[in-house]
């Protein structure tokens, strides 16, 4: 025990974080052990990157990447769908639900998926997603493995909710949970906050670590055993999205790409979605806050906007390609955030404004590691209803309207 305390002190000293032991002497033995374990297991190398953010943002040369647009998809729908269904029936396609986020903008402490979007009846976000996937299961007449990523903050609640609801009719043997990693949260000087006397503040480390976490949980082995060659990773909050969409899968296979990204035509050049492009000749995504006026105005060879298609967090990845890149590191994103913390006096503070940083890896950066990627256009009104906020843009309200327009009874 004392050895561990000594080791912890040494590590904290190295990173200038000794203050996290401030209340150590007040803790129970169990709490002390937990804190030491957290110190031991936390990556502190990342902490000082919030002091060098300019360096993190350097980009390569951006050029256009043509999307497969709706007319081309419509003209080939039958044959792409046949190819996709064949892959699904052969068990080659799995789905990965990214549900480790905190959903802070929605303002509920519960996992986002348990949010009830119903009006006259109960219908939960998770339920909408399962219903969408079930349509493909029925069409293919084959179950699709569904991997669900959670985090420390919502794992138990997520598993309990889905189990209590019997996975909304999904076959239990085809649902697999795994947890993503956490990253420490710091103040503007890079000092780790305490979330209580016995724990450093942390938050989920972003949706970019999903494949590594899935692998560490032994689920990539399972995927190999089951013959899964493609994984469709998607966000928890888009209640209209098509999952394991046979036409999308088929188009990606037929175009001989190792990845695919569902995209929508942007409504305005400055819309807050990441634009798909090439960066130094490889597929990539420029986030909306990195879009320069030049990029927004740029035209392609046909005179159309060159960076017109935005990603909607629905990606298809070839598993072999994921294995190839698994050891490559992803860029670190430093995000300003409101972090509840324990002050010097040991009192909890819930800040009204951002007071520090969290660290994240993002799935969109994995696209840049792929050898190729097919941007696949979807009809926004049919497939894109993200729930980020309670009201306004990308909200419960806007998603309800879109769900109803697509025939879902709320
Ligand atoms: P968002 O970027 O919307 O983040 O996540 P969020 O944490 O859910 O919501 P806010 O920003 O706090 O309001 C997009 C998708 O990525 C998942 C989310 O669950 C959502 O499906 N995600 C995000 C993770 O799985 N892990 C993370 O660490 C972050």
Descriptive report:
This protein is 31% helix and 20% strand. The chain has one domain: Spore Coat Polysaccharide Biosynthesis Protein SpsA, Chain A, CATH 3.90.550.10. Strands 4-3-2-10-14-11-19 form a seven-stranded mixed beta sheet, with helices on both faces. Strands 1-12-13 form a three-stranded antiparallel beta sheet. The chain is built from 14 helices and 19 strands. Helix 4 packs across helix 9. The mean pLDDT is 95. By secondary structure, the chain is α+β, with helices and mostly antiparallel strands. The site of uridine 5'-triphosphate (UTP) has 20 residues, from loops.
Provide a concise account of the structure shown.
The protein has 410 residues and is an alpha+beta fold. The protein is built from 14 helices and 19 strands. The longest helix is centred in the N-terminal third of the chain and has 20 residues.
């Amino acid at each position: 025990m004392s050895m561990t305390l000594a080791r912890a002190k040494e590590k904290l000293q190295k990173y200038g974080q000794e203050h996290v032991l401030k209340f150590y002497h007040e803790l129970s033995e169990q709490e002390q052990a937990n804190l030491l374990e957290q110190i031991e297991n936390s990556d502190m190398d990342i902490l000082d990157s919030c002091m060098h953010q300019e360096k993190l943002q350097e980009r390569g040369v951006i050029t256009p990447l043509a999307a497969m647009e709706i007319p081309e998809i419509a003209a080939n729908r039958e044959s792409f769908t046949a190819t996709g269904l064949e892959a699904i029936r052969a068990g080659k396609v799995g789905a990965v639900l990214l549900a480790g986020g905190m959903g802070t903008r929605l303002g509920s402490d519960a996992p986002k998926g348990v949010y009830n979007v119903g009006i006259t009846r109960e219908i939960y976000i998770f339920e909408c997603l399962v219903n969408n996937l079930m349509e493909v299961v029925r069409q293919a007449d084959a179950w699709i493995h569904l991997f669900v990523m959670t985090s420390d903050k919502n794992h138990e609640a997520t598993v309990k909710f889905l189990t209590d609801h019997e996975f909304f009719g999904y076959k239990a043997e085809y649902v697999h949970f795994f947890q993503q990693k956490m990253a420490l949260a710091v103040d503007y000087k890079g000092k780790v906050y305490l979330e209580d006397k016995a724990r450093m503040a942390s938050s989920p480390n972003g949706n970019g670590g999903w494949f590594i976490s899935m692998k560490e949980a032994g689920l990539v082995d399972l995927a190999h055993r089951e013959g899964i060659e493609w994984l469709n990773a998607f966000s928890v909050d888009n209640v209209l999205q098509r999952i394991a969409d046979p036409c999308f899968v088929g188009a990606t296979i037929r175009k001989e790409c190792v990845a695919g990204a569902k995209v929508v035509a942007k409504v305005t050049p400055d819309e807050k979605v990441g634009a798909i492009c090439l960066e130094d000749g490889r597929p990539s995504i420029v986030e909306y806050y990195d879009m320069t006026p030049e990029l927004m105005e740029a035209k392609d060879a046909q005179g159309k906007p060159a960076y017109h298609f935005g990603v909607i967090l629905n990606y298809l990845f070839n598993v072999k390609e994921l294995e190839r890149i698994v050891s490559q590191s992803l860029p670190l994103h430093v995000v300003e955030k409101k972090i509840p913390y324990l002050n010097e006096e040991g009192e909890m503070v819930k800040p009204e404004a951002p007071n520090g940083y969290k660290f994240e890896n993002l799935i969109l950066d994995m696209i840049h590691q792929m050898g190729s990627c097919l941007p696949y256009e979807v009809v926004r009104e049919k497939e894109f209803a993200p729930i980020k906020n309670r009201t306004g843009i990308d909200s419960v309200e806007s998603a309800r309207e879109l769900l109803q327009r697509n025939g879902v009874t709320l």
